[in-house]
Amino acid sequence: MKATNVESLFGLMDEAITLLQTEVELTYIEALSETLENLSFEAKAQQVEGLPSIEAVERLNSLYKKMNLDALDKEIIRKSIQLTFIKATKEDKLQMNHQMTPDTIAYLIAYFIGEIKKDKTEKLHVSDLAAGTGNLLNIVVAHLTSRGNEVTAEAVDNDDLLISVAANSGALLGFSEKIHYTHSDSLQELLIAPSDIVVSDFPIGYYPVNERAKNYQTAFPEGNSFAHFLMFEQNVNYLKESGWGIFIVPSDIFETDKSSVLMGWLKENVHIQAFLSLPADLFHKNGMKKSIIIVQKIGEKSLQAEQVLLGEIPDLKNAQKMQSFLDIFHNWSAKMI
After folding, report:
1. CA–CA gap between residue 333 and residue 337 (Å, rounded)
2. 84 near 59, Cβ under 8 Å?
3. How many CB atoms lie within 10 A of CB 132?
4. What is the DSSP-derived secondary structure letter of residue 293?
5. How far apart are CA 88 and CA 252, in angstroms?
6. How many C-beta neighbours within 10 Å does residue 257 have?
7. Which of 172, 140, 164 shows the shortest CA–CA distance to 153?
8. Of the candidate ranges 38-52, 107-121, 170-184, the one whose mean pLDDT is the lowest
9. What radius of gyration, in Å, describes the C-alpha atoms of the chain?
10. How many CA atoms are closer than 13 Å to the CA of 326, on its beta-carbon side?
11. Which of 281, 290, 332 is nearest to 116 (CA)?
12. Closest to 204 (Cα-Cα) out of 118, 132, 135, 288
């Protein structure tokens, strides 16, 4: 039976991934990456040095055909891929920095961008320098495209499996001509165009390459520097003057004994327009609580909002409170931006 919804498509994808995983002795995410690559290129299984077996190739091709991707809504495909990655996260015990940005947060960021960039005819270039599987960028690009904007984008990540998942997911979602994918350490010099908007769910922790970190003003004088400080600076480096950055950061980013390093740099380079705490129940550990920060790169057309929007985003499941919050953001952006 052919796939018709998220549940049936995920079931077929999971069966294909598990079969490939067993046949070729791969981790789940490795098999997911190869499955998406097969689906992106003529939906046919590839055999290398006799693996997978002829019988497995035939079974995989049958599963691919049943997936019926050409006839399915792109959102069904995106959500099904998301479910397979969530399974990979659990089965392969992926590190925190490799986990996918949740839909709820990604859609919220897409809404913020829509309120900030009100012109639906404007050509926009968007980038994510810690793209991971591409879920955040895919949702932002889809949102802006659906309302009429002509959108191009850059996705960069230093993990080969994650950027492969992102690129092949993008191909299945019809974004091959919109999004350019780069496998690179984002803190190296990048051959990408400056963006109107940058979004990112920053990796948290220490950056191990001190020789490269010393090129950044947010680096520490001694020892390893915070990756999220360096990523903040690098994202702004690839913003056009007066462009906008919307980032997911640790809620305590301005409360550590090293925060003065970041604050000093921010004051010289961006206007902080909003800092909004995400609901605590989105995170397993209180120490991992995160917030969304909205900044504008200083330029001729930039303007510091008279009132920086500070506060907490309510429980995303509470429709009434969320609508009230969205109204507050809409009114604030109309007056301040």
Report:
1. 5
2. no
3. 24
4. E
5. 29
6. 6
7. 140
8. 38-52
9. 21
10. 17
11. 332
12. 288
Helix (H, G, I), strand (E, B) or coil at 199: strand
Tokens 């895919």 -> residue: 138
pTM of full prediction above 0.90: yes
Residue ranges and CATH numbers for the domains of the chain are 6-91 (1.10.150.470), 96-336 (3.40.50.150)
Give CA–CA dist 244/322, Å, rounded.
23
225-281 confidence digits (pLDDT tens):
999 999 999 999 999 999 999 999 999 999 999 999 999 999 999 999 999 999 988
Residue-wise pLDDT tens digits, 125-166 = 999 999 999 999 999 999 999 999 999 999 999 999 999 999
Closest to 200 measured CA to CA, from 172, 233, 226: 233
Q: How far does the chain reach from its first CA to its final CA, in angstroms?
A: 51
> Average pLDDT over the chain, rounded to whole?
95
Q: Which amino acid is at 48?
A: V
Burial class of residue 189 in the structure, from the number of CB atoms within 10 Å of its CB (0-12 exposed, 13-18 middle, 19+ buried): exposed
User: Left (φ > 0), alpha (ψ -120 to 50) or beta: where does 242 sit?
Assistant: left
Contact 23, 52 (CB under 8 A): yes
Q: Residue 307 has which token pair? A: 């009132």
Before 52, cis peptide (omega within 30)? yes
Name residue, tokens 């940005």.
101
- Backbone φ, ψ for residue 288 (5° rounding): -100, 10
CA distance 136 to 115: 17
Question: Are 274 and 294 within 8 A, CB to CB?
Answer: yes
> What is the per-residue pLDDT across 61-87, written as a single tens digit (0 to 9) for each?
999 999 999 999 999 999 999 999 999
Number of Cβ atoms within 10 Å of the Cβ of 166: 28
Contacts of residue 100, Cβ cutoff 8 Å, sequence gap at least 6: 82, 85, 86, 89, 132, 133, 135
Cβ pair 253, 265 in contact under 8 A: no
